[in-house]
Amino acid sequence: MSKSILLIGCNGQIGTQLQKTLQPYGNVIAVARREAELTQPQTFEKLIEQNQPQIIINAAAYTAVDKAESEPELANTINAIAPQLMAQQAQQSGALLIHLSTDYVFDGKNNCPYQEDDATNPLSIYGKTKLLAEQAIRSTCSDYLILRTAWVYGCGGKSNFVKTMLRLGAQKSELKIVCDQIGSPTWAKDIAEAITALISKNQLENGIYHYTSSGVASWYDFAVAIFEEAKTLGFPLKVERVIPIATSEYPTPATRPNYSVLNCAKISALMESHPPHWRQSLRKMLQEFQQLNR
Questions:
Q1: Which residues have CB under 8 Å from 173's CB, separation 6+?
Q2: Model confidence over 61-76: pLDDT tens digits?
Q3: Of 126, 209, 220, 259, which one is the catalytic site residue?
Q4: How far is CA 278 from CA 20, 180, 191, 225, in A?
Q5: What CATH number is given for 3-159+185-214+253-276 in this structure?
Q6: Which of 86, 120, 183, 277 is the most exposed place for a label (fewest CB within 10 A)?
Q7: pLDDT in tens, 236-287
């Protein structure tokens, strides 16, 4: 059955993929973050009235984790206030709100994958604003789905770890990469396909879900894999050596969780399948990226 879907943040990593994966399931109204004017209630209300969406997907976010430490008001406006506004409008119009959140709502002190109901304790402005959005949606909207994901990369959007590594790997023979932060690199296309699969289901229980690729890695592991796969595909790379370093050797404005692996058992049971392994998805992404840039 065709649905009317309002996609906010259509130009980001996940948004660009959602535009493709959602097409068979409904009429997708794709709106960029700035075009939506999410901080203006009247503008967003008009957007809802004009399009009458059955589903609102918020793929828009302020994702510059370090920059958010010096721009807390802007990060809060985009990451917390705007989703609260969406939740209010979704509640009034009877639409389902699907919102993307992050592993950074946790402090990284766990020694096993985080479950959806584990205690949150964000360490950064970015993580705090994303948690505020979760809380606002849960208290405002009766029909919602919050999807936490992590370490997102893809062909779309402005920048991500994979693109950065490919750029630096083409310029330098040696790179130092943090080895004591552990997570699950996740391809934006896999996230988009998971959201689409959830939408296609007739019965969907409200709540928070975790979705990342299977398997775990450090940023160092991820970088090494990127270069191995990219060299196999013939990417022009100069890098010959990747050196593992501690987080303390690479200080950043924002504190990141040392361990942010998410338990995806809940969503795997719902979808009756497990997310693909991160290395498998990385290979596919690099193949697509290579084709797009020929």
A1: 238, 239, 240, 241
A2: 989 999 999 999 999 9
A3: 126
A4: 21, 18, 12, 10
A5: 3.40.50.720
A6: 277
A7: 999 999 999 999 998 899 999 999 999 999 999 988 889 999 999 999 999 9
